Design the sequence.
């Protein structure tokens, strides 16, 4: 069986368009079978976007790890139009959609990279944002959290959204181990928004 987190997918296409609104800005996203949350923007992703917009004024660079069809990276790129936004995913279908959605939403400051976790990521970023692939397993999720330190600039921040029942407490401990700090900056409907600072 193919899952949304696999590298390639043989599942039949069923491309659909959905509308999304954030702080009066309108977005239109193409989605497909075998990508995460294909009928609506995931609650956790929406919470992550809202929290980052509330907490961050003017980041210069953002990496969206496990971008799927692109709702987090594209929305943040629209609001932080001076930032360079990089969106990566292991799933080719998701990356193709994210690429098309960047164009569809007339975003000029975002790019996509096919990457297994940070495998093809070269630079360092002021922000790393992730709604991590829980279904890919704890090892992958923790590699995303631990590896973020190498890809954050000095004073950069990682934001990760995880449900309490899907390991938010363990993820918080992991981030504390790596960064020496981790705050829960928002909690809603069982979702925790974790933030660590790369001091
Ligand atoms: C929970 S989904 C979030 C998708 C998207 N950010 C959103 O908000 O809809 C996690 C994403 O991580 C991707 N993923 C799974 N394993 C990965 C890996 N090893 N490296 C990079 N991305 C991965 C999946 O393909 C999926 O798109």
Sequence:
């Amino acid at each position: 069986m193919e899952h949304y987190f696999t590298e390639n997918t043989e599942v039949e296409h069923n491309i659909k368009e959905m509308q999304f609104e954030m702080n009066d800005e309108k977005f239109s996203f193409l989605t497909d079978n075998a990508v995460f949350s294909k009928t609506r923007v995931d609650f956790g992703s929406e919470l992550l976007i809202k929290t980052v917009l509330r907490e961050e004024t003017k980041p210069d660079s953002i990496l969206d790890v496990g971008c799927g069809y692109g709702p987090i990276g594209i929305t943040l790129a629209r609001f932080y139009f001076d930032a360079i936004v990089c969106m990566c995913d292991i799933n080719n279908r998701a990356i193709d959609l994210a690429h098309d959605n960047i164009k569809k939403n007339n975003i000029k400051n975002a790019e996509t990279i096919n990457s297994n976790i940070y495998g093809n990521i070269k630079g360092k970023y002021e922000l790393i944002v992730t709604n991590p692939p829980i279904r890919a397993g704890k090892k992958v999720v923790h590699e995303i959290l631990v590896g973020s330190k190498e890809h954050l600039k000095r004073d950069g921040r990682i934001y990760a959204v995880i449900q309490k029942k899907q390991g938010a407490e363990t993820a918080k401990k992991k981030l504390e181990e790596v960064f020496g700090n981790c705050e829960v900056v928002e909690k809603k409907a069982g979702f925790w928004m974790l933030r660590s600072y790369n001091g």
